[in-house]
Amino acid sequence: MLSPSQGEILAGLCHGRAGQRSGWEAFVALFYTLVTMMDPEVVSFTIPTESNKIVFVWNISAEKPEEEIYCSLLKVFSPFGALYSLKLLPNAGVSDPGYYAVIKYYCCRDASRSQAACDRKTLFQDTPLKVRICTKQKGFNYKSLSLNSTKCQDLANHYLGFNGWSKKIIALQNISGLDEEEDEGEPQEDTKLRYLCVLEVVLPGHGIRSRGVGVAEEILMKQKDPAELLMKTGNLQKYAVQKAVSDAFQKILLLIFENGKVAVEYVSPNDDAVDCLTEDELQGLIQVNDFTWTSFNPEGEEEILTELSFHEDTVGF
């Protein structure tokens, strides 16, 4: 549906309020913009599992060192869009010496463009590469797993720019023992050290604020080395912050349009109190342990490569 301003522009063009040629050109430009904006691709801050985002490359020669081949592939395929991963693997023992690669994009459009541009091209070697899109993954239903904090920030930098977002720590606190009953009758041989971080990701250009929670913990054997305790405390604090960053990005969706424009949507569960409370209220809840922090899961792992299945009609050796 057209907005009032867009409707007025179109009405003006139709009634000849602009010159005939310039008015038609403006109409075509506006129409193209409206059409391309109607079909955005949604990108979440999760590990991409859709088969149409996976590019399979083979017929890679072994004439160059593996490190050089990897860099060449990265140089060729990264300009088409943000990459989640690029894996270079040796051919099976029964095949000729060489390599194949599995490349994962966040956008299926980027994967499709890379396949169309690179298939049967020599690129960085004398023989042409074969490039296909993985069309199905048979027999496995993958759960969407959160990107880790580094991947989240790389993806945000790619689509929003380095100055398009920021993060702020609201709370970073030791919550060891808050949800545990102390057993006074038995001596404690080890201690559970636990840190909580509440962090806010801000997208000023889109008017969006998203908070995330991260909890990191470690079992410490009874020891009296303060230097080791200090080091482990610092590591746990850092890990809690990283998990909070990832959690905050899980509530943000990127809408990527064909013309390169990016819109942002904020999606949060209705019962998410973290985003609804003020910073002072959050601090109070942390102090009285009024949240179940143990429900925050660690980052997921990458799926197994051998579970991929490529459609027979699109792959031929």
From TrEMBL:
One of its GO terms (biological process) is DNA recombination. It comes from Xenopus laevis. It comes from the Eukaryota. InterPro entries: DSRM_RDM1, Rad52_Rad59_Rad22_sf, RBD_domain_sf, RDM1, RDM1_RRM. GO terms for cellular component: cytoplasm; nucleolus. Its main location: cytoplasm. This is DM1 domain-containing protein. Pfam families: DSRM_RDM1. Residues 147-253 form the DM1 domain. Signal peptide: none annotated. One of its GO terms (molecular function) is DNA binding. Keywords: Cytoplasm, DNA-binding, Nucleus, RNA-binding. The keyword S-adenosyl-L-methionine does not apply. It is found in: Cytoplasm; Nucleus, Nucleolus. Transmembrane segments: none annotated. PANTHER family: RAD52 MOTIF-CONTAINING PROTEIN 1.
